[in-house]
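Box 4.2: Ligand-aware structure prediction
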Amino acid sequence: MTAPISEQLDTDELLESGQRKMEWARQHMPILDSLRESFEQNQPFAGERIGMAMHVEAKTAILAEVLAVGGAEVAITGCNPLSTHDDVSVALDAVDGVTSYAKRGVDDEEYYEAMEAVIDHEPTVTVDDGGDLVFAIHEDYPELIDTIVGGCEETTTGVHRLRAMDDDDALEYPMFAVNDTPMKRLFDNVHGTGESSLASIAMTTNLSWAGKTVVVAGYGDCGKGVAKKASGQNADVIVTEVEPRRALEAHMEGYDVMPMADAASEGDVFITTTGNRDVIVEDHFEAMSDGVLLANAGHFDVEVDLEALEANAVDTYEARDGVQAYEMADGRRLNVLAEGRLVNLATPVSMGHPVEVMDQSFGVQAVCAREIVQNSDEYGAGVHEVPDELDREVAEIKLEAEGIETDSLSDTQEEYMDSWQHGT
Ligand code: RBV
């Protein structure tokens, strides 16, 4: 059984470095700061055990800390084998009420063992990013489901997975689709993914965006962000899509839209954001130029067919930290970042989304955890949209922290908006 991280690593230096990262994040998370104050007073999670599987770095650590301050016993592990910051994991493990099992660079077996260590705490609430925790509980520990009041899911892929479970009547407790709220989706998916993916790629390779052709696979919220920011860095952007309206939207934004079969020979950098598998496959590798960069910003490492790439390569070697080169028989080198895993979190220098963005997403997580504990009777098994007033609450805290005031509707305006009799 996996031991808490502080029993696995020599903690002295790691602890200080992790605490410093957490302090920086804390200073830039006004939403969680405000919720911390109210949770400290009201203890909404007294007696609850919260199991979490998320990217364990500084912002996530502040979320876990805030839940613990609210009375929860928190157990946490990673949701990706490469996204954990060991120093933060150690610092988090030292926080009162929190046990962290997350460690960077674990293999599949260790990854699931750490998940089991979290489950061993018998959580009453689960907080997931990608659905691995909720899935492991349903698959291997169904006896715990009775005492679980509900949970929250952070990301598009996880919500998609939960909806598929729900459609099969296989989801046996309530889960909030945190990803789908305006406060998460419109900021985290668009700006967060755009900024952090490009930043990670740039820092990992030390190469420029200007003058490059960047192929963005998928024009959902994440693809929109990546395309917009790449274009803002003076790259030419090509979008590939399967959905006709999204393809049109990309076209009307001024991007070239074409199938991957055509884009393969045009691109210098490829960034996948589809949430689906086999987006870049053997035929595409054959058409690519020497030196291309292949990066994935989708939750799982299934978008670039690495098995096919490996099978076709005559040689492979680490070109830089976080960059694996695959040499083809004709001498072309195709460079894969972060082993095809989430490029914004999984290269050695990745830091995930900007702090302000995660403050919003995790603000929604925190109020959803509070809601599921306080009003569990109102939610049956299945996927639930987050009540709009909770999302508004988080937006209002943020506006207040930023010192931004808004207008409010007058009585006559309210009446006008509610009526259908007014015409010309
Ligand atoms: N994400 N987390 C971070 N903690 O730094 N950065 C991104 C972090 C989340 C984001 O909300 C997205 O939905 C998910 O990671 C994909 O796994």
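In the box above, the bound molecule is RBV. The domain at 5-184+354-402 is CATH 3.40.50.1480 (Rossmann fold).
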